[in-house]
């Protein structure tokens, strides 16, 4: 049986992590019926779509237009509010099959197809919404795959950020996101989907465990994993994880560490 988590860990630590492969491995962990040929088929589909784009010779805006015509108009890739209610919207192999997904997964499709065709493309993790950019980041052309690849102006980006945060657009928000940043954001989305669904705590658990396999991740994830273990009835493992995390934070936040140790003690008491 393939150890998808081990493959995920190895890919995440590669010199140049493959974004599509990492996203497909998330899907393999999520869906026990997925096989290696399924992942190969998804990669082949990305190659096929890229083959329908002319290679090179475009400026930034032209690339955005070409992708919108191919993926948005011809193949119908886009998103709706209903897609936020489905776990499949965060799994790349399902997004390729359904042609529906969250903004970040649709952006992954746009990026991977465009990259294969030679486009200067990258993802932009704006607050509350993920989009793609083409060309020099200093003079980028933006597109919104969730809206079928609609071209975005600078004002569109400013309004989007203001609507999500109430704050102005900062130049740092237009910095291209790296593959591991994108993967962590996808895993956070999956956890957010599972959080209000106690019956899907297993989904939240594997999502946080994959995030912990990334070479750089928030230390807080260890505590999140501990809470999920306790929620799922694994009180001893959860308590041990809380105490390990308390030891990490004790030097900088002794009061927080004491609180966490008390919670670990309470988790052990649930065995009585």
List keywords for this structure.
globular; alpha+beta; 272 residues; four-stranded antiparallel sheet
Report on the architecture of this protein:
- The protein folds into 2 domains: 171 residues, no CATH class; 52 residues, no CATH class.
- The chain is built from 12 helices and 4 strands.
- A 4-stranded antiparallel sheet has the order 1-2-3-4, sandwiched between helices.
- Strand 2 and strand 3 form a beta hairpin.
- Helix 1 packs antiparallel against helix 2, helix 8 runs antiparallel to helix 9 and helix 10 packs antiparallel against helix 11.
- The protein is globular, with a radius of gyration of 20 Å.
- The model has no long low-confidence stretch (mean pLDDT 92).
- It comes from Streptomyces lateritius.
- This is Tetratricopeptide repeat protein.
Short account of what is shown:
It contains 12 helices and 4 strands.
How would you characterize the largest beta sheet?
Answer: 4 strands, antiparallel
| Shape call | globular
Strand order of the largest sheet: 1-2-3-4
Q: Please tally the helical runs, counting DSSP H or I stretches of 4 or more residues.
A: 12
Succession of helices and strands: HHHHHHEEEEHHHHHH
* Estimated helix fraction: 55-70%
Whole-angstrom Rg:
20 Å
In percent, how much strand structure appears in the residues?
5-15%
Into how many domains do the coordinates divide?
A: 2
Please state the structural category. Answer: alpha+beta
Q: What's the end-to-end separation, in Å?
A: 37 Å
Give a count of the beta strands, DSSP E runs of length 2 or more.
4
